[in-house]
Amino acid sequence: MTWQQTTVRADDGTVLDIALPPGWWSLPTDEPDLTARAHGIADNRPAPFPGIADELIQLARVGASAGTILMAGGAAADDETGQVVSASLMVIMDDTGDTTPTDGIDEGPSARLDLPAGVTVRRLFRGIAASPLGDLWELKAQYAVAHARPWLLSFQTPAMTHAMQLLDVFDGVAATLHITPPPGENAVFG
What we know:
Distance between the termini: 37 Å
CATH architecture: Sandwich
Radius of gyration: 16 Å
Largest sheet: 8 strands, antiparallel
Oligomer: single chain
Helix content: 10-25%
Strand content: 35-45%
Order of helices and strands: EEEHHEEEEEEEHE
CATH topology: Jelly Rolls
Number of domains: 1
């Protein structure tokens, strides 16, 4: 299956290209017709989820005010267990440099990854997230990309029994990130 190439442009003119797994949806937070795009995503879900379009719109607006330029996610059925395995991604322009979630437990040491977008530090956290089904444990994988403007890829999944397989997917997505700075700006510092 072919991964889906997604391109977004930050307010400063930086262009980010990233590939997402087959079947994942993507929602740029500056989408001109955010309502129509969110309803299109909701209408293409395999099962009804009342209110999801409105929630996506609200998340996109709140996320945009905090530097998020792209939200994405996907779900698939595990035929062996009958479970739905889901994950989400936010791509954030992170001027703070602080990638520590306020509500998580470190899951092992950080890992340095040499990716096409630049040197990247991956940190894993385990925490509890509220959901329509109640509080669920989730894995958070954050990739801090060293670039002229720091970028953060933040993945989340409640599928704890599939965490290691999803970590391979998250690493694969992070490896597809390419950053083109605006004209006149250095691509990488250091």
